[in-house]
What does this fold into?
Amino acid sequence: MEDRDIKLESGMLRRPKPADSEADLLREQRELLAAGGQTTVSVVKRPDKRRGDAAAAAPLSQQGNLRDVVTIEDLPDEIPSLTPAPPKKSRFKQERVRFEDEDPEERLDRHDTHVSAVLSRIVERDTSAVPVSLPCITGIAFPKVLHRSAIENESQERVPKPTKSIFARQIAAQRAKEDVKSSSKHVDFSSSESMQTDQAESKYVDSVGGPLLLSGKGLGIANSTVEMMKIHEENQMKLQAMSQSQILEEQKKVLAQLDPRLVDFVRSRKAQRTPGSETSSSPVQRKDFLKEPPANSASPEIIDTRKAKESTMEEDEEYEDGQLLVQSPISEEELPIRPQKEWVHMDKVEPEKLEWTRDLPAPKRSSTKKAMQARFDFAGTLIPPTKDLPTHLGLHHHGDEPELAGYSLQELFLLSRSKLNQQRNLAISTLANVLTKARAGEFIFSLKSSVLSSLLDAGLLFLLRFSLDDGVEAVMSAAVHALRALLVSSEDEESLDNTFSWLLGMANFPLVPAAEEDEDEEDEGLDEVMKETANEKEEKKTDHDVARQDVVKGFLRMQGLPRLRYILEVVRPSPGVVLDILEVLIRIARHSTASAVQILDCPRLMDTVISEFLPCSWAPASSQAPSSLYGLPVSLAMKLLRVLASAGRHICARILNSLRGKELLSRFVVVEPSEMLLEEVEALRCSLEALRLFAVAASYGQACNLYMDLYPVLVKRLQAGQQCCSTSEAVLRLELDRIRALLLLLTQVTHTAGCHEELQRGLLSSQGTECPPPPPVVWTHVTGLQPTVISSLKGCVRALDGPAQMSSALILLPSYLLYAEAFYSQLCLQSSFQPVQCLQELELLTSDVLLPLISHQAMKNLISSFRSNSVICNSGLSGGGGEFVPSLPGLSSSRLKSSSSIADTKSPLPLPTALLHLLNTITSIHKGLVNKFSPLILSDSVLGYLRSCIGVMPSVSQMSAWILRHEHHLLYLLLRLAHKLVPVDPEVAKHASLFHQVSLALLSWLLPGSEHLAHELMSIMTFSHSLLPEGACGDPEVTSLAELQLQDRTSPAVSALLRDALHHLPSIRGCYLSHLAHMEPSVHSSRDRYLGQTPFIKSHLLPELTGPSLPSDWPFLPLISLYERSGLSVGQQVESLPLGSVQSATHCLQWLLLLESWREHTLAAVPPVARFARLACVFLCSSDLFLERPVQEFTWALFRRLTQPAQLEALDLGSPPPGLASFHDLYSALLAQYEAVSFGDPLFGCFVLLPLQRRYSVTMKLAVFGEHVGMLRSLGVSLQQLPIPLEKFTSPMEDSLPLLRLYFRALVTGALKRNWCPVLYVVAVAHLNAFIFSQDAVTEEVDLARRNLLQKTFYLTDEVLKNHLLLFRLPQQNSELGFSTYEQLPSIRAHRLDSIVGTGGER
It folds into this structure.
């Protein structure tokens, strides 16, 4: 039954009477309806809460018949079956927890609580501190009758809105009267009892009539009010005794202790409760105390802060005339628009909500040491905090610091998620500008932390990925621009393009972050088969973890490529966005081969790029800057293909065959740039990138048929190479780059043609083995290029004399020289090779081209700039110019370009490198021409450059590796030419030692991808007799003998050892090459790249940069390999070693002795502790290897070298050696091995004794005298055999009480005897003697131990030991005892002994 309200209406004729029956009511209803009269009631249906408001809101016309009919909702048409209805669910019943085995009776008793239990829980409220108000005494007998009008008038001011009942308003009025009376009493009491003062705070407190903070409720006494007032008086007296500055200081202390949020809350509440009638006549108001700004108002989530010395923001607290300057809340008079009475809900002014309407305060001027939040303008420029910018620039907003212009990074992040499109666009565009300036290094000296790191940690990559999905094209475009600013560096791309035509410039390191070695705890203790693979671990990582380690991989993980394809294919954005996307794709392709494959595999991405931006036919552009790039060739699209092709030969094949790459090359290589119907610069770039892509394909031995088809066009371009003339510098540079790219293409084709015969022979001789098919191009296809190239080369050399053409000639010369080298290096491998004719050509080339080029002043200028532009010699050049982020590596070439010319077009590297490359090839073919090039090696600039390379250790990182690699090529080629000149030119032979030192240094510098150079150096130069002139005469041997001080019967003369080592140099070389056999695949891959074996090159992406190819301690490699192969653990003995182990260890020790004697700088990169640890492998890898005579001899020599004074001082055992967790673990293994297999060997004993020097950790001494005290019986190293001064063990005095007790116990128990272990016997006696007779101020425990040991020493029964301990004087290594003694105790010591043991002057 629905509820109904019946509303009476005027004019009603008759009402139903209570006496009417139901029949009467129905009859009257029928009569009314029959007469057509109107009903006197209106039926209003209330909304059914179960059906919602929609049904009730329907008009009456849609609600069926208006007759008063009783209806039942949801009544079915058919009679339901007589089944019980489902029970009504109770919301409270569902929340109860019941168990199946629970007794219902117990549950009923638990819920049916008796009234006694309820009453027992009633606790009376504590009313001891509640004041009792007595009823008012009146003169009338009965209470006054309440009149409604009187109550309303009385409470009108106090109760603005009559929303309370009459009784409630009456009670409120009575309470208000009582409060006024009690307040007046308090005022009188306070004024009569307190002292008058001029202090502002006391006047304010008196004016309010009592304390505002004290209530007396916590006193718990009857007269709490009186006690409260006494406390108030004491507070007033203290305030009166304080000065104004003291009061302000106390205020600061209180504010510093409070929570800033609590202070802000109290301020706001106080401002609301401050009555409007109060005036500012009082000197200091209580609200001033609350309005003081907090001590730390900066946000804790600040991402970037300005350095303190650069900050110019003033302190949070300002003072003027000793008063706090506080900005009062805004009043109604200060409002720009005053609220009117007609405005709804504006009758009450809320000042805290209207603060934003007042004028901004001026920026603060005085300096402070406090760091401030970095703020940027829309262009990404950092705004100084003191700069007062006008508001019309739009840089002021309602943030935490409205007076400061600009946006912080936090605010930009917040704005980028706004609902307004303009705000999102503005925020992301500003972030893009900030990223661009941060990558350029503009904020390095202005901000404490890195902007890039802070933004990436805050989730910038995720923000940009979300913004790419924005439906607004402007926001999407801004996100693409920001993504390009984050990933792409224009300077890095320019540097890589410039070095593309250098020697092996195609190859580059992948821009992959350094791998983090994180061992999962779950894999610990599992077999290798059970451990998770790298791919499985990568799949388990979240997007955040992947992006934190590698930004590019994180972007790919978030499906960034499909979104970029959608933008290009569907959105079809403006030209700027298209170019940004292409640059982003190029950067992703440089990341790794896997990333390049993902680009190719992304559905329709490359199809869209090629079809839209590399069409084979197009209409001419309507303007210089077309509104759309769709349907027009874009050079960046061609560059993307080239970078993708460089990632691998299979990718290149897919581009050429599946993506119409050959058709594109034919289209853009054949057509001249002037005929492309494009803007001149863009047309040149398209042609340039097409030639570079062609060169990359040719470097894999691919697209050779296309070369034969385009041979006439390429030869025509080659012949016209010297005709470059343009008034625009940019156009001229592009034309020169086109010629360089063409020469690079011909060089790669020549290498490919030179491999044809070798592959043909390999194909015929291979019996089921895998052999690549020979390329279609043969040697006769390239022989016609050589005359044209040589002619152009001569023309370039002649052009050096013309100032106008010199710069162009210097740019082109390296490419011509590299082609000449490729031609002659492959010519001598052909079956049609004619030696006599070739030698004549080389002689003519040397006299006409090479010698004039070497002697030209332009070449001399380049050579003289080697040292100043060297990244090896100047470590500061390799530092990053911009901000470095480990997860986003880059080349940081901006700083390198600003401080050096080594990476630009005027670099001194490409021309000398190409010249030396050609000279080495010519001298390999025609050895009679070698001595003609000695002036190049003997020049002061070259020798000075080589000397500056000795003793330096350049840092290796992504920022320096790309240019270090090219300088390594220069050094290697210089050394190869010098090595050829040493036997034939006596002047060059004088510097053989210099060349050898540089070759050893270069061997430790070579990077991954240069393993072939390392193999060549080790095979030819490192172990060459001609580069070790010290072994050719006797004087250096005598010098080495004097330096090593090896005149000892335990070891032969060093001269004999060095002669033996020199005699075995070939065997030493074989030993090291055999131990580097694990690098054979890398050596073969590197050799194919260096020798131009194009069919075997797999990729132009070098191996990941993890450091140099060889470790810095490579001379110890055979010893380390023996130790690793033995599988020795702590305490485990190895009975046998592989065959040849003694020879390998001997050769390694021989080479180490040569280096220690004559090439000290080679091992400078290996710290002494690492050398000691590596030499210890001689004892740890076998049980008897150290007993072999040659091993003993060379190890003794190396140990004595290691214990020289300078080396011994540099030996720091506190830091763990490279490759070991701690030195203590190594020493523990050494002690266990000594106990097991030493047989008292003196050499092994010296290795054990060295770490026991006084300056090293006491833990190693405790290990000897505690855990391994039994070894003292066999540690029989004599004092004469010990090459370390004894004072190193005895001075200063030992202060470890446990060790001293162990010393004493070992001596007393006989575990340590002088005839067993003379060295440690002297050490123990010296330290115990110094300790027991020491009278220094010490703790009570140490003094008690000192007295106890002295007493025990005096009462020893062993008179010899007793005399040694009491009469010890000084250590003497050459004496029989090892120390000198007193004939009798000095008086001071005798007095000390007598005072402790009461000897009575016996001694």
Observations:
- Residues 1134 and 1182 are 5 Å apart (CA to CA).
- The mean pLDDT is 81.
- The beta strands are 4-6, 43-45, 319-320, 323-324, 1368-1371, 1379-1381.
- The two ends are 124 Å apart (CA to CA).
